[in-house]
Structure formats: structure tokens, C-alpha cells
Design a protein that fits this description.
By secondary structure, the chain is α+β, with helices and mostly antiparallel strands. The chain has helices at 3-12, 55-62, 67-71, 99-115, 117-132; strands at residues 20-23, 34-40, 49-53, 80-86, 90-95, 139-142.
Length: 166
């Protein structure tokens, strides 16, 4: 099911207790009866995007030090590793009428984060992939998405610092 169709299904409230995971965008709040739990379900792991650079352009990109300089480059495909970008983390969406479910999700995830059990589960599912992606030699850019200005940023306190895992 496409994400647009999934959002329509969620908005219709056809399925009781339906939970969907998407990256937040401001226009999602305008889709009607959709609400979200303020917690990044993968603790930010799926927010990272690794770009691969053509060997032809690798040397020129090695000189890039700022996001502004990076935006001037147009070639970001190929086989060499270069940088990782960090857009917003995916979060969980529910129908607005299901505030009990939303609150349970938020409270349960926050408790699991606080007691370390969520981090343990995260390690089981993501740690090998994070280590494989070899973050240390990459340049990290935090990219602000202009399509997300209205989100409750409380979720950011639960993002794991990816640089701790290389």
C-alpha cells in the first residue's frame, strides 16, 4: 500500500487501533483526523541517509566542508562512500479519536527508553547495520526539512547519537 493510501485509510478510521509509521511532514496534519505519538520509534536510526559518490567526483566532494558547499554539487550517485544526511526521524501516527492508543504508545516507549529495554532492542535490530555503514569516516550533515516546521520537537531528546556507534 502506498503511503498516500495508507494515510487515507488511517484518516478514515476504518481499522480500529491502526498505527502507521511515517516521517512527519506539516501537510500530514492537514489530512484530517490524524495525530502522532511524540516519539521516534527507531530512535533516529532510520533518519540517516548515506549517499554514494561517483569516483569521478569523490575528490571534489572531499573538499566540501559545509552544507552550502554540498548543495552546489549535483552528482551524488556512484560507488564511493562520502557523507550521511540526517532528516527527521519516523514517528507513529494514529487516528485522532484514538488518544488512548497514542498515549499508551508514548508512555510505553518513554518507559522502555528510560529503563534501557528499548535501547537493548534497538541494538538487536540496528547496531550491526550502523557499524557496517562506517559512520566515522563520513561527513555528517544535519539537513533541515522545510516541510516540517510545526512538529512537536520533544521527540529529539530520544534520538540516539549515531556517532557513538562507530
Amino acid at each position: 500500500m502506498s503511503s498516500a493510501r495508507a494515510r487515507l485509510v488511517l484518516n478514515s478510521n476504518r481499522f480500529q487501533n491502526l498505527i502507521l509509521e511515517f516521517s512527519y511532514e506539516d501537510d500530514m496534519k492537514d489530512l484530517g483526523d490524524i495525530d502522532y505519538a511524540v516519539f521516534p520509534i527507531e530512535l533516529g536510526a532510520l533518519s540517516y541517509r548515506t549517499c554514494f559518490i561517483s569516483p569521478r567526483y569523490q575528490q571534489s566532494l572531499n573538499k566540501v566542508k559545509t552544507l552550502t558547499e554540498l548543495r552546489e554539487k549535483r552528482h551524488a550517485t556512484g560507488i564511493e562512500r562520502s557523507f550521511t544526511a540526517l532528516p527527521p526521524a519516523p514517528i507513529l501516527f494514529v487516528h485522532k479519536s484514538n488518544q488512548t492508543l497514542k498515549n499508551r504508545l508514548e508512555q510505553g516507549l518513554k518507559l522502555a527508553f528510560a529503563d534501557g529495554s528499548l535501547k537493548k532492542l534497538w541494538d538487536q535490530h540496528f547496531l550491526d547495520s550502523i557499524k557496517f555503514s562506517a559512520i566515522k569516516p563520513r561527513t555528517l550533515y544535519s539537513i533541515k526539512n522545510k516541510r516540517i516546521r510545526k512538529i512537536n520537537r520533544d521527540y529529539e531528546q530520544y534520538l540516539l547519537p549515531i556517532t557513538d556507534y562507530y
